[in-house]
Amino acid sequence: MNGNSTHQAAHRVVIVGAGFGGLNAAERLARSSARITVIDRKNHHTFQPLLYQVATAGLSPGEITAPIRSILSHHKNVEVLLAEVTGFDLERRIVKTGDQEISYDSLIVAAGASHAYFGHDEWEALAPGLKTIEDALEIRRRVLLAFELAERRAFAGESCDPLNFVVVGAGPTGVELAGTLAEICRHALAHDFRSIDPARTRIHLIEGGQHVLPAYPEDLSRSALEQLQRLGVEVITSALVTRIEPGVICMGETRMDAAVILWAAGVAASPLGKKLGVPVDRAGRVLVDPDLSIPGHPKVFVIGDLAALKDASGKMLPGVAPVAILEGRYVAKLIRRQIELNRASASEPEPASRTAFHYYDKGSLATIGRAAAVAQFGKIHISGFLAWLAWLFVHILFLIGFRNRVLVFIQWAWSYFTYERSARLITGSTVLPGWGRVGPGEPGNSEAEQEMSTAMDK
Amino acid sequence: MNGNSTHQAAHRVVIVGAGFGGLNAAERLARSSARITVIDRKNHHTFQPLLYQVATAGLSPGEITAPIRSILSHHKNVEVLLAEVTGFDLERRIVKTGDQEISYDSLIVAAGASHAYFGHDEWEALAPGLKTIEDALEIRRRVLLAFELAERRAFAGESCDPLNFVVVGAGPTGVELAGTLAEICRHALAHDFRSIDPARTRIHLIEGGQHVLPAYPEDLSRSALEQLQRLGVEVITSALVTRIEPGVICMGETRMDAAVILWAAGVAASPLGKKLGVPVDRAGRVLVDPDLSIPGHPKVFVIGDLAALKDASGKMLPGVAPVAILEGRYVAKLIRRQIELNRASASEPEPASRTAFHYYDKGSLATIGRAAAVAQFGKIHISGFLAWLAWLFVHILFLIGFRNRVLVFIQWAWSYFTYERSARLITGSTVLPGWGRVGPGEPGNSEAEQEMSTAMDK
Predict the structure, then answer these.
(1) Would you call B206 an interface residue with chain A, using a CB distance cutoff of 8 Å?
(2) Closest chain A residue to B408 measured between Cα atoms?
(3) Residue A233, C-beta contacts closer than 8 angstroms, at least 6 positions apart
(4) How far apart are CA B405 and CA B413, in angstroms?
């Protein structure tokens, strides 16, 4: 048992999760007299907007991650713990991690979200999603392995249809994955095979709604569709996935063979949301008060993808990095004000009155591929190369750690001009469910499934 | 069934293994009219001399690997297959891969070596070795996880001894690992923890012989010992490991607690050597003829770490990259001469008389840490910064792929001046055998063990 909640001692803040929200809260709080403990079950912060680049072999995991410890190491009042939070005791002001109880004065829960398979959790092993580095490596492994196994079959004289890759869900992640996969097939891999032609690979993007990028204005949505089709992606809208088997995906009566199926269709909040014991929405997000605290607990805050909050117009705030960052900073400010009040008054005062969190949307950007993107800044809508440049600039600028930024920029400049993908590495299992395997005596796909199960993550 | 061995058609060469030997043979043969098939069970070539940098979080896997396919893609007569070779039929001139039979006119077996645990294979899960990218990631995971778990214990108020890391075997790999680990503890991690002091970490290097770097001249061996001790490594010579348990290593009566145990003590040739059906030495290396062919089969060659060949003075050629590279080129030359003879004569001729392979030793280099190394070029022996510069130059020069070279150089320049380690990423299992775990409900260390078993490799 640690910590101390008398007001003479330092105010203890526990932050669960070191994503964009948690890190920004920690950075802002570090300048106060608070003692901060950041708990995460990974040792690294992941720059999620570039995860698709790891999944498509463009960047290495080390280039879009940074150890949480080293990001925060210059703040002597910040402590980082690698641990998995298992629950809370809000009455005793305690966070539980299985073997430890960590006490707090203020608590920020920023545990993020994972994939949702809409009641079909058995699809996860067959159609991995993209939330963590482990997910990205699993996708990379499957995509590269599919080409290798197809080459082997063709070399042995088996006649095969061209490879088919299916991406389910045409939100930003699905669009990025489909666009980048199409590019890899046409360019990076074009000259590397002798018995198959990677350029003939089919890429299907399946969307349940009527449009790709459904959250974007219609003109940008249409532009994204055109850019995808120019890259060779076959887009199927208004189609619901009803069944996934090894190597096969079904939409109602339509069955489609697929070497690789990727899931970018649904998001579910971290199960930690439910453990706070307050109401959550259907996706498991915590229904927070306008100041991001939870009902009845003014010192417990939920931010980022785990929080459900509507803006002034009644629209749900999207699960994107800018929202999480601003929420983290807002909550840090509230807690700092509280610490100052505590210091001024001898007895513990009532929480100060708070202005509600307000999100000012500066715009949104979605990339589709090389020099292809859409962007919206208020009423300004742009597409294509200019939007892509804006996307590139913003993402390199916000990538954590100067060194990473330089390296990522060099990598991108290099692959822009050479079409090369630098991180085409297959590691781990060499089994592709429903498709084949490399070794003769490998133990099924149990390892891939285990990897997937440990990869269930914020 | 593929290929064709009549002399009108292209001469078919099968190369098993795309390490230094196999790749160099392929590159040289590619300029002939031969049809070449390179088979490897990994999709990437690994630059093994820098593996220890991945294991110690200095470089990312993508930076010291390159897809075999893309290294060879500009040679249209070279085919690459991701497959695991299971055996040979030398009479029918066939390589077996489980589900395929691939015929050859000339065969080069360059399947390399793995770790040897001297009859204690059960030690492998407790003391991983360093031969593949998977091995390196496993070592990185264990080292970083040890610090995280120690921090957690100390945070919870448990009193603990400083961490102890043990490296078994003081050949070049063991010396590199021990030296670099010592540096990381003193520098890269020094300011990142609050409850433990990484600088107090103990590093033990255990060697069965009387000296570190036993293959080097005595003065360099002594210099290496001094450089190691300056870095804080505790060297124990003439000590044999008799037992390894989770978290404990024993040398006779001496028991030592160890959070991480690394194995750099023994090398065993690939089991494919034995499958050729010709005599092998105790380490499983094939006793080749002076032209690197195997007895009775002038068109079957074994090169690299899998071959046992003595130089003119009767000393066994070492298992290092320069030997493998020169052997690969030598064998390629023999096969090209044979192809020319085949073309000149209508009937299949006898193999031409061959000059024996001769290895001219240009020198050897071993690095110990930052600005610490030893080098021998003939009678010139150098130590310290100059030797380290020579090592750096040679290794960056030979790193495959221009892009990788530039990136690695930038990384190194950066970490030389900042002491930072860029790839401090824990992925996969969060269990450390005999030491602890992160998650409360994780399924034992079965995943770590599975990883280790799939990592048994060339």
Answers:
(1) no
(2) A407
(3) A178, A179, A182, A203, A204, A205
(4) 12
Smallest Cβ–Cβ distance between B82 and the set A2, A148, A429 belongs to A148
For residue B340, what are the contacts with CB-CB under 8 A and spacing of at least 6?
none
**In angstroms, what separates the C-alpha of B450 from chain A's closest C-alpha?**
7
Cβ atoms A311, A359 nearer than 8 A: yes
pLDDT of residue B2: 45
Average pLDDT over residues B441-454: 40
- The per-residue pLDDT for B58 is 87
For residue A381, the cross-strand partners are A376
For chain A, what is the mean pLDDT?
Answer: 88
CA atoms of A307 and A281, how far apart (whole Å) = 9
Residue A184 carries which DSSP code? I
Task: Please count the residue pairs, one from chain A and one from chain B, whose beta carbons lie less than 8 angstroms apart.
Answer: 188
What is the C-alpha separation between A337 and A299, in angstroms, rounded? 12
- On whether the CB atoms of residues A271 and A79 are closer than 8 A, the answer is no
Q: How far apart are CA B261 and CA B282, in angstroms?
A: 26
Candidates A137, A151, A245, A136; CA nearest to A189 is A151
Mean of pLDDT values over A198-220: 95
Query: For chain B, how far is it from start to end, CA to CA, in angstroms?
Result: 26
Cα(B24)–Cα(A186) distance, integer angstroms: 29
pLDDT in tens, A259-268: 999 999 988 9
Phi and psi at B32, nearest 5°, equal -100, -175
Going by C-alpha positions, the residue among A64, A55, A22 that lies closest to residue A41 is A22
How many CA atoms are closer than 13 Å to the CA of A136, on its beta-carbon side? 29
pLDDT for res B273? 96
CB A309 within 8 A of CB A317: yes
Q: What angle do CA A101, A104, A110 make, to 5 degrees?
A: 90
Top mean-pLDDT range of A375-379, A416-420, B226-230? B226-230
The answer to whether A294 and A274 have CB atoms below 8 angstroms apart is no
Q: Does A346 have pLDDT greater than 70?
A: no
**Contact of B63 with B411, CB cutoff 8 Å:** yes
ipTM of the complex: 0.87
SS3 A256: strand
Q: Which of B41, B144, B191 sits opposite A438 (nearest CB)?
A: B41
* Sequence-ordered alpha helix ranges (H) in A30-156: 51-55, 68-71, 133-155
User: From CA A252, how far away is CA B149, in angstroms rounded?
Assistant: 49
Distance to chain B for A240, nearest Cα, Å:
33
Phi and psi at residue B91, in whole multiples of 5°?
Answer: -70, -45
The token pair at A178 is 């489909």
- Let me know how many helices (H) and strands (E) chain B has, helices first: 10, 27
Q: Is pLDDT above 80 for A448? A: no
Quick count: other Cβ atoms within 10 Å of Cβ B406? 14
Read off the pLDDT of each residue in A148-170 and give the average, rounded to a whole number: 92
The two tokens of residue A265 are: 């269709």
Cβ–Cβ < 8 Å for B405, A44: no
- Per-residue pLDDT tens over the stretch B83-125: 999 999 999 999 999 889 999 999 999 999 998 898 899 999 9
Tell me which chain A residues have a C-beta less than 8 angstroms from the C-beta of B131: none
Please check whether residue A134 touches B, CB under 8 A.
yes
Torsion of CA A199, A204, A205, A210, to 10 degrees: 130
Q: Which amino acid is at A269?
A: A
User: What is the distance between the alpha carbons of residues B107 and B98, in angstroms, rounded to a whole number?
Assistant: 18
Residue A244 gets which letter from DSSP?
Answer: E
Chain-chain contact of B438 with A60 (C-beta, under 8 angstroms): no
